[in-house]
Every structure is written in C-alpha cells, then in structure tokens.
User: Fold this.
Amino acid sequence: MAYTPQFYPGSTSVGINRRKHMSGNIEKLRDIPEADVVAIMGHRAPGADYASTHPPLKEMGEPDCPVRQLVAPTAGAAAGDRVRYSQWTDSMYFAPSIPYFRSYWGAINCKGCDPGTLSGRQIIEARERDIEKYTKQQYDSEMTDVALCSMRGCTVHGHSLRLEENGMQFDMLARTEMGKDGNVYAVKDQVGIPLDKKINLGKPMTEAEAKKRTTIFRFDGVPMGGKIGARKFDEAIEMTHHMWEYRSKWGYRPE
Amino acid sequence: MVTESDTESIQVEIIPNRYLTPATTQRLLNEIYGSGGITRIMVHGPNLPRSVPYGPGRGTPIEENRDLLIEVGGQAFELSVKVGRIRLELESEEYLAGLKAACERALPFSFQIKRGKFFHTRPTITDYAKFGKVEDKRILGLIDPKAKRNRLAILSEVQVTVDDKEEC
Assistant:
C-alpha cells in the first residue's frame, strides 16, 4: 500500500484545514495577476529584470557533488537570483492560515525556501522568482482572506489586535483598504510605500466562511479538545499531550 | 474642582469589540459627554503614525492617518490613536446606567464595561518631571509617560481650554 503522509491529527474542521494546508491540497479562490503580486511585494518593479547575486549555475561550473546531482535547483537558484522575502500577518480572529501553518505549508511544499514563524507574523525567504511564485500561490488560495491577512514587511502588528469596524485587520500603515464596492484594495506595498495604482484583491470572506476555513483553535470557535462536553477529547489534544509528556520525561526520546 | 477621594467617584473602562473609526469615536464621546458626570476621560489605542516609522519606506507620509478630526463638546481634536479603549472617572455610581445607555446608542457592535481602578493616585517620577508638583490630581494617569508632548485637553462647562490633544 502506498504511504500517505499523516500531517495532523483530529477530526475537527480546524484539524482538517491544518491537514489541507500542510499537504498543499488547498483550494484556489482568486487569481491576482502576477504583476500585482510583484508590486505588492515591492522588491522589484513588475517587468524589470531579476537582480542576481551570482552567475547562473550552468555558467559557474559546480563541484562534483552527489547531492547537487540528485537535487535539481529551483528556477531562482539556477538563475542566481537574490534572496527576497514575503511576510504575512494573519489575524487571530479566524484568519484562514495562522503563522505556523503558513510555515508548515512552506516547509513541506515549497522547494528552496526558508520559512520563519514569529508570534504574530510569518516570513518566507527564497530566491526572488521562487518567492514570487510562492507568494502568488498563497494570495490566490484559501490560505488568505484579503481582509484578515495582509503582507507586511515592517510594522507588522495586527495579528492579536481587534478588527476594525469594517472587519479588516488593523494596520497602522493602512496598506489595504475596504472599497465602497465591498472589495479590498492594496494601496501600498508591504513596507508602506504607495503603489502606482490600487490593486483589487477581491471580496473578503464572510465571518462564517472564515470560521469554516480557519486553522486556529479558539474557545469561541472550534476548541482544540473538539466538541465541548464530549466524553473524549479530539485526537489533536491527545497527540499534543502525548508529545509534551514524551518531551518532558525523556527529552523527546521515546524509549 | 480637585477630586479628593476615590470612594465616591468610580472608574470604568469601556472596551468595544472593534476598533473605532473617528466618526464612531466622535459619536461615542459626545454621547458619553452628554450623559454627564464625567470627571476625566482617556482614550487609548494603537498609535497612528503620520509617516512610516521604520523599514525601507521610512518617512513616507501616511495620508490615511492625518487630519482625523473629531468634535467633542463643541471642541475639535485631532486623533492620533485608533480608539480601542476608553477609561473614565464618573462623579458617582448613579451615572453608570447613563453611560451604558450612551454606549448602546453610539456603538453598532458589542462592548464591555469594566469597573476598577485605572488611574494612579500618586505622582510618579515621570509626572514630576512633566508637571512638577501636581496640584490637580485629576491629570494623573491621563498622560502617556512616553509622550513627548502633554496631549491633554481640558473641557469645562465654563471655559474650554486645550493644551494639545485629547488623547493619551
């Protein structure tokens, strides 16, 4: 029988969503043009050449290394691109992807990237053309709700703050705004420099939709133990207890 | 009039479930002001900088955060925070019901009102550095100790004087 990776335990909707994010089996909800994603990232002008830090690998002549022969380089690495980043802030008010699950998604599904998780934000670094591809995948998929998630290269706080009246995540640099037509527009790049034109990111999810797609356990949503009052906790909490026990007693060496 | 004792007055904190727009803030503050019995009031929330504070875009103006003018009790102020919390001292408990009603009228979403002790009563070193010997203890707890300017407004039924801004 073929091996199927088991990414996350539990039968709650959050557990199922976490498995989806980790496996990369995520639904595409929108299609934001690549040039717009590049503009929001703000590392290069859309259509400009990629800056490079070294010549293409084919021209460099790599040493005789079995690992290099086994692993094909990513497009960005092969071309010698700079390393660039995209950083996301996801609201704790039922944003679809919370920081750790963007990282799991990146680490499992994105080749040649370096994900980093902080308390309220998540950054992925990779070669420039690779990170552009990965960022577009995140923007277009159910990992992102345009009201509750936004790209913030600096001044990132917003994850644990209350939402604004219109349901948007608070951003003191006002990088995104809710239009009168109900669509969310990106008006600045991820570091707060105004864009040449507003970029339509589409309509935000409803509260019910966000709660359906979220990967955050919350007492006022889906708690980690599963259904409140159930005779048995959900497997997610049992697994966490199990891991903590092993880690505490034997330094994570189950013998 | 100097507040002499905390035994008669009460301190409360209003926490709306969403951050307030300037329009809602104005509506709420005017409702609160109209309900009466206010000794002092402080609005609190995350800072809204006028320009990008750091990063590659440092110094870029943030037009959305400028000119957030509101009018309270006939006096115009400029907000420099996103209002998320309002602390106030009422002359006595009898004004609490009116305050709740004012919040219900002004806020289109849920909120919490907590009673407690939110303003300090003894001057800190920062208070001493800013004001010297404090005569009117009502200003204690109204000022952000890290603020470079006083950011304090005094509204009076008799005379309205404004030092700088109404928020701390």
